Automatic annotation (TrEMBL):
Family: Belongs to the short-chain dehydrogenases/reductases (SDR) family.
Cross-referenced CDD domains: SDR_c
Pfam families attached to this UniProt entry: adh_short_C2 (PF13561)
Keywords in alphabetical order: Oxidoreductase
Gene3D superfamilies cross-referenced by the UniProt entry: NAD(P)-binding Rossmann-like Domain
PANTHER family, A to Z: DEHYDROGENASES, SHORT CHAIN, OXIDOREDUCTASE UCPA
Name by which UniProt lists this protein: SDR family oxidoreductase
Stored InterPro entries: NAD(P)-bd_dom_sf (IPR036291), Sc_DH/Rdtase_CS (IPR020904), SDR_fam (IPR002347)
PROSITE patterns: ADH_SHORT
Amino acid sequence: MSRFQGKVVLVTGGGSGQGAETCRLFAAEGADVAVADWNADAARAVADEIGARAIAVDVSREAEVKQMIAAAAQPAGRLDILVNNAGVGYSESGRFRMASVVDTPEEAWDAILAINLKGVAMGCKHVLPIMAAQGGGAIVNIASINALVAMPGADAYTASKGGIVALTRVLARDWAPKGIRVNCICPGGVDTPMIAGVVEQLAAENRELHPIPLGRIAQPAEIARMTLALASEDASYVTGVILPVDGGATAQ
Ligand code: ADP
């Protein structure tokens, strides 16, 4: 299949996990891919593997996002698909701790919202005029099933992902007349570094509250394949959709 021959694709958070897998699948189907990540080495490694371009970016900073979009669009003079996948979760070992609202320090709240939600908004802000000028495009935002059902103890993360869902709907409505489709994927548990950092007690609580009918968490490619589907012409009549890819967890 080469659904993306001649298409320019930018994936944020493309340096690891499902973002990296998304880059691989787009490249395998002929896309000209730009891999963006704040981990420049990780972005470079994925880009080298698939013959793509690497862009270092912190999506929480508008100036960097603006440069990222310009750099991705510059060689071909167009940018057909943006996947807003960069995000931070809630690892005990990482910069942010999974916490209820009463235990979340103000800096963590600001940082998680800035990366997960403002990062998506800024990506859209700078790509939409380009897509409108070229006559269309597709944006896929990666949220989480946290946006749809209550998961214990990740309040800032949940709020950021809920914001992505709401933002997707308004952008889909506002930009449809310009031929731009905006959709959102809500992954459940995915076998990536992010989930590996989730403390076992909370992971067990989540499994109990929201059992997965398919009986297992997702492989990154299972999320990435749905991202490609929404970005492709197969979804030419689909916009504003919030699609859980969760093994049935939110069907309960
Ligand atoms: P998942 O694959 O489940 O989404 P990961 O933690 O594996 O989770 O991937 C998230 C990606 O987003 C990582 O590659 C990480 O470096 C990237 N990322 C996180 N924060 C930012 C940021 N502020 N700017 C750019 N990339 C980021």
